[in-house]
Amino acid sequence: MHAGRLNMKKKMATGTSSCLSFGEPGLDRFFGPLEPGTITYIESSTSFLFDVTYKIIAAALRDLRSRAVHVDGCNMLNPYRMVKTMKRFRMNSANALERVSVCRAFTAYQMSAIIDNALEERVRDAALLVVSGIQYLYQDRDMRHKEAKVMLRRASHIIGELTARFGLVTVISDIMRPHTRYLGDILTDVCHRHVGFARLGKGIRLSDLGAGVAVDHKPVPPYQTILDEFEAHWDGLSRPAL
Questions:
Q1: Fewest beta carbons less than 10 Å away: which of 1, 40, 154, 218?
Q2: Whole-prediction pTM value?
């Protein structure tokens, strides 16, 4: 690990908000708690990434009782899927959606403008920052590779500084497509954990790319409750919503 990355990690180790879980036992066992002031970078070759994004946003709204900011660079956010996830978390979806700030970027220049000029104001009272499709946007073939690297490096540095200053739980994610230029090493320099999702039969292979550890996960549809979740929500007094 080079000195710049080490210094960034030390700076980002401070945070005041609570740790965050994904709200699904299988994912929580793999990730462990997501700590404030840290960045998790997820590379995925499957749309399972979208479901994980909805779950982490819903968990932040429910457990941290704060706002979430989603900078969406790959047109990921589907309000209908988000509402389904919130219902699974037994939340009032109308009230919860009001606490999610969404900034959409359709080009690398728009992404850079949002991160440079608007992101700090958005995250001041938030606990969670999700940035989706950041590497995807900087893959534009009309953009010179050198320019893409400079812009992405600046964006990742700003995300790191804001994560540290405001004690954010930050998740950066990308859908990996074949035949694209790889820029992910810039993002791994500021992240604390680098994980990958890949389709494996009817399940998903979850890989901790830094630790060299992988586990297999079988996701369920948003409207279903797994046994662990049923037991976790059972309080002996009221039956969980079906």
A1: 1
A2: 0.82
